[in-house]
Amino acid sequence: MKKSSDKNKLVQKFSGRGTDLNPSGRFEKFDYVAEPDETYEEVDRPRTKYFEDTSRSIITINDSPDVAADASLNIYRGCEHGCSYCYARQTHEYLGLSAGLDFETKIFVKHNAPELLYEELSSPKWKPQTIMLSGNTDSYQPVEKKLGLTRRCLEVLCDFCNPVTITSKNKLVTRDIDILSKMAELNTASVTISISSLDNRLASVMEPQTSKPELKFEALRKLSDAGIPAGVNIAPVIPGLTDHEIPEILEKAAVAGAIYAGYIMLRLPFGVKDLFIDWLEAYFPDRKMKVINRLHELFDGKLYNSDFTIRGRGQGKFAEQIRDTFHISCRKHELQSEPYQLSTKHFRNHGEQQLTLSFE
Asked: Which of 18, 44, 244, 262 could form a disulfide with 84 if both were Cys (CB 3.0 to 4.6 A apart)?
């Protein structure tokens, strides 16, 4: 990061990126030092590159008790939204890449996601259950506008009447209202808009490629008006920086038509800690220690605790204060504070139907 001529304003070295850093992954034995013509410093804005993801399966099953759905579907690995705090950044290290700039500039795409999804839903082994879109990275990140893979997956899910819950920070989700409203008639679709702050300046440097806060509320309104169960997730709550915004975010969400709400505390696993602390130092040096001290208070003197019962909420008096503020605001604005429940009773397995027909 570098300072501008205005001492109270900080600007990014790389416009539209959530971090300027690109540290080696935690699994790498050696640090790679690029030649001068290869470094990110040679360009004003690192160009995003897309790679083929050759995965042969698309639905991931997990048993994390703090995740609303056991099944998730992620079409993209890496995310151009560039959120400085994103806990998914560290997953790029499994690919031998960095959780920093690599995560937001090297995106792996599952071009055959719709075909894989059809195949897995057709299997007699599939037990109908809610599938979460964007459990790791956002299915409506910028490249989705061009590729339309998320939309094609929704068409498959609609055809099978398999329930899907979507979480996104991008207004692009409203593009698919025609499919989602059809699914909502059978209670097989819901959409959660993730909002971290109402402050445009803060949001623009914290999550540079996401939709602006006002556009997120506009998306909530359009979804709600179309009869699609819609809610808001305050994610992440950054103690000492954004936690005071909880009541107003929930009020605006309710006015926009949200019927449920949730929140997730800031999660900084592995190298994401260093990336976020660097971001704080660049943009909010005066609040850096306040945020760090609050995190220590929430996570037993550490910046993060991976325990399922703690990582998304924290513990202690400050965690209780945030929890109480959230629930009081939900009651005030008549927002459901539990995950919205979808139905599996309309599911139809095309694979079984085709098998029956072939033997008649």
From this structure: 18
